[in-house]
Amino acid sequence: MRLADRISQCRTPFIVHSLKNGSVVHLSGAATFAHEIRTCPIRYVLCDDLTRLCAALAYSKGTRTLACADLLRVPAERIWLEWCEAPWLAELARYGFKTDEHSIAAGRRGALIHSSATGRRGLIRAFWANGDSELDVLASSLEAYFDFDTPDGEAPAAPDGADRPSMVVFDRGVGEADILRRCFRFRYERTWAEYYANSALAPEQRDAVARHALGTIAIEVPLMLTFFLLLATRPSLPRRPIILERVNRARSKSGKAPLLEHVEVLAPLIPEYRPSCSTDRGAERRPPRLHHVRGHLMRRGSQLFWRVPHLRGSGRAGVVRTRTVTWTMDGPIGDAHQPSLDRWHPPQ
Asked: In 3-state terms, what secondary structure has residue 257?
């Protein structure tokens, strides 16, 4: 079952019972968002090939998403985005990220995104499920807020004006070209912020909890941004609306909750690349050893060039997919050097 369906059918609240003082705290969890997921106007589900492609673009060495910040926009004021965990984790491991070896391959990840009318500012909450019971459907304790028009040297403003402490995630390897550093901030959701504020955790414990919480949402952001970037290309990504009217009629007769309609988004077709073989018999140069070359993303004006990960060396390795893919954009969204003038109201 899709993660969106599982969240929409959640009824069990997330309640914490303190063994020290007997207090009971109701925290924001998956069940809190059941109605929002059911009424979300746009729900995207990424196919596995597209998940791998987005992850490869997002995490390849040399990728600079900040250079494309003026092209980024969330396509609607409220959307749901979901993907299977297995291909995502496989790509993370390929690019050197540590992954949980005991993670269940059938798990799913997702995010609910609230955005301004222009799609340039917003709030993200992450979700995941790794088991079959309702208790295995979880929501991140952190939320991410962003502003793609954040000037260099400044921090994005909180969408609700609240002054809760925020955290920054950055990659030293990319320095100032890090879009997470400039445009994103992470903070505990209100109920979780109050819960941890009233807890008696030592500073070391607070840091450990914060790092774990960041790992549930920050690592997903580059994949989402890459998806939005590809969605803005011309002619965009192949999409297949999934209509479940007939299935839901049968489920209704058997007393089951209806499944949510969604749009399945597929990977674009990439032409195959066949290594060229020299016909010059006089050339005795020894071919290089077969090796893997990491991909990287470049931008020139309104075009994006992705040097895809590929094998280089002897052609005996067989067919390799094209090494360079070009996507054409319709153009930047406004002037990235001017502050956003749109107004929006974050979820309460």
From this structure: coil
What strand order describes the sheet that includes 233-234?
A: 233-234, 324-329, 303-307, 296-300
The pTM for the full model equals: 0.82
The b/e string for 89-99 (b: 16+ C-beta within 10 A; e otherwise) is bebbebbeeee
pLDDT digits (tens, 9 = 90+) for 222-244: 999 999 989 988 778 999 999 99
Task: Write out the two tokens for 15.
Answer: 């309640």
Q: Name which of 116, 110, 297 is nearest 216 in CA terms.
A: 110
CA distance 108 to 49: 15
- Among residues 109, 218, 219, the alpha carbon closest in space to that of 166 is found at 218
Q: How many CA atoms lie within 13 A of 333 on its CB side?
A: 24
- Give the Cα separation of 178 and 188 in Å (integer): 22
Instruction: Look up residue 199 and give its DSSP letter.
Output: S
Residue from 110, 115, 167, 113 nearest 138 by CA = 110
